[in-house]
Design a protein that fits this description.
- The chain has helices at residues 3-7, 9-13, 25-33, 37-47, 55-61, 72-82, 125-134, 148-172, 177-180, 182-186, 207-221, 226-242, 258-275, 301-327, 335-353, 371-405.
- It has 416 residues and is mainly alpha-helical.
- The relative contact order is 0.11.
């Protein structure tokens, strides 16, 4: 065993360590599109597939199609089908089961005004942000969704929706007094938004925050842009704390929006933690007093999901500190005690996660019980704990074993 083995540690723990090859066209398409394979296959079977009379005529008639929707309700239902099981930023659905209803014609050319095939056009920050993700899901009538043309068209539309989302956020945060009476604007007046909320159980002031969270994940998972991910998550964090989402009390439980606010805050927390290690916030900040969200079918799902994220951060921060100590030949006398402390937290969590019976979300639909959401959150928590925390634990044990073999407690014993 040599120092080269441990020099790889920082490469494995950086945010986005698994996204290093996103610039390779085929790899990134597979990473994202594979999430929706089951849904796409089911929709294709239900709605039928495009038939061609011959290979030549199919080639001549081929026209890629991008998902578009005809109303906010259709966009919301599609969110519950494709996004909510893995990224539950909204409360449980009001109407269930949610049904995916993309426009049959879709869009077959780059995003512009002429590409809109319906009188409806998403305009609120959250409807645009959700449309960003939905545009990446293959249309059930696309004859060749894996073709470079189809993939490129979907990406172009998604990016256009993302840019429109940011523009909409800016418009809705504008203060009328900023132009006519800046002094009154400085006194703390809030923006006036003259439209109906996108979701009946989510107050309208949450929508820009939720849109930023969606764009944060979009930049991370689809575009591999960690800097923009952090920027979007950081903007969401500031906005959330400005309206005290982090410190909601019992007095906030009476208006019917408590669950929406809790999810907005804790998903903001997750995105900020995911984007930077060490995170820009203290993971156990005493100011963060808002209750955890709830899932009626599985009350443990949200707590273990959040605890898994916190555990990863603690383990990763320790590895960063250990790596610095190794590089500077500092004493490792604290390693054993700290590692035992981490093991006492991580090992029970891993053992608990291994007892979960997790079904396939692709065979379930979202309803008010959110059993599919609980499945998704526990599945994500298990992946975080088993893949990253176990890797950290094994790496640390190997380093300590190496130090013991050489009878020293410092970095001078890193090579054999």
């Amino acid at each position: 065993m040599t120092a080269a083995c441990f020099s790889q540690i920082p490469l494995l723990i950086d945010p986005g360590a698994g996204l290093r090859h996103l610039d390779f066209f085929q790899d990134s398409d597979y990473l994202f599109d594979s999430v929706f394979t089951a849904h796409y296959d089911q929709n294709s079977q239900n709605q039928g597939s495009v038939e061609s009379t011959s290979a030549d005529s199919s080639s001549e008639q081929f026209q890629p199609i991008v998902r578009l929707y005809g109303s906010d309700r259709d966009v919301l239902d599609a969110y519950y089908v494709f996004v909510h099981p893995y990224f539950p930023i909204l409360p449980p659905p009001i109407f269930s089961p949610a049904v995916d209803r993309p426009l049959e014609a879709g869009a077959s050319e780059p995003f512009n005004e002429s590409s809109i095939v319906s009188d409806y056009e998403p305009s609120s920050p959250i409807s645009l942000a959700i449309s960003t993700i939905l545009a990446l899901v293959p249309h059930p009538s696309d004859p060749d969704p894996s073709s470079p043309e189809s993939v490129l068209l979907r990406r172009e539309h998604a990016q256009s929706f993302a840019q429109s989302t940011l523009e909409s956020i800016e418009v809705e945060s504008e203060l009328l007094e900023s132009t006519t009476a800046p002094s009154r604007a400085l006194s703390g007046s809030s923006a006036s938004i003259g439209r109906e909320p996108f979701h009946p159980k989510a107050p309208i002031e949450l929508e820009s925050i939720l849109a930023l969270l969606i764009l944060s994940i979009y930049e991370y998972a689809q575009r591999g842009n960690i800097a923009k991910m952090r920027s979007r998550a950081g903007q969401a964090l500031i906005s959330a704390m400005n309206i005290s989402l982090h410190s909601l009390g019992s007095q906030d439980d009476d208006d019917g929006f408590a669950e929406a606010r809790r999810r907005a805050w804790w998903m903001t927390y997750i995105c900020v933690c995911q984007g930077s290690i060490p995170p820009t916030i203290s993971i156990h900040d005493p100011r963060f007093t808002t209750k955890r969200p709830t899932i009626s079918s599985d009350p443990d799902a949200w707590p273990v999901f959040l605890q898994a994220q916190q555990t990863i951060i603690a383990a990763t921060q320790f590895i960063i500190e250990l790596n610095k100590a190794l590089q500077t030949n500092s004493s490792l006398s604290y390693v054993f005690e700290r590692m035992q402390e981490l093991d006492s937290i991580i090992e029970p969590l891993i053992a608990r996660a291994d007892t979960w019976v997790i079904g396939s979300p692709s065979t379930m639909s979202v309803d008010s019980s959110e059993a599919i959401v609980a499945t998704g959150l526990k599945g994500i928590a298990r992946i975080k704990l088993n893949r990253r925390s176990s890797l950290h634990g094994e790496t640390l044990r190997s380093q300590v074993k190496l130090s013991r073999q050489h009878g020293t407690g410092n970095a001078s014993s890193r090579t054999e």
